[in-house]
């Protein structure tokens, strides 16, 4: 389960803004659960050594294929998060919240474009 937890932390870290908090895709909101920095600290207690190559030296893209998101990062804490997933679930496409091809952007570590999340 530790390997699964650490894999989940990696995904959460990819989907979080440079400020360490979640992106607002679907029904996300602040203060509902621990943020990625808190969970990353916990993963270190479980024995995860962390990503020793975490400094971004140039443009880097990651496709999180199973969840349908893509992440583009480049120096100076710039990050673009993009929803490329299929509209779903298939039995109720109305639950897609009109977020197909939506994106969020942080520049210099500050959020510039965000989704509305949930009220």
Number of helices, counting only DSSP H or I runs of 4 residues or more: 2
**So what's the overall shape?**
globular
Structural class: alpha+beta
Rg: 15 Å
Low-confidence stretches: none
Major sheet, described briefly?
Answer: 5 strands, antiparallel
Please list the strands of the largest sheet in the order they lie side by side: 1-2-3-4-5
Number of domains: 1
| C-alpha end-to-end distance | 33 Å
**How helix-rich are the residues, as a percent range?**
10-25%
Q: Name the average pLDDT.
A: 82
Please state roughly what percent of the residues sit in beta strands, choosing from under 5%, 5-15%, 15-25%, 25-35%, 35-45% or over 45%: 15-25%
Which sequence of SSEs, written as H and E, runs from N to C? HHEEEEE
Number of strands: 5
InterPro entries: Hepar_II_III_C
Pfam families: Hepar_II_III_C
GO molecular function: lyase activity
Domain Heparinase II/III-like C-terminal: 62-119
Give a description of the structure:
With 119 residues, the chain is an alpha+beta fold. It has one domain (1-113). The protein is built from two helices and five strands; from the N terminus they run H-H-E-E-E-E-E. The chain has helices at 2-14, 36-45; strands at residues 60-64, 69-74, 78-83, 103-107, 110-113. The protein has a five-stranded antiparallel β-sheet, with no helix packed on it. Strand 2 and strand 3 (78-83) form a beta hairpin. Helix 1 packs antiparallel against helix 2. It is globular, with a radius of gyration of 15 Å. The N and C termini lie far apart (33 Å). The model has no long low-confidence stretch (mean pLDDT 82).
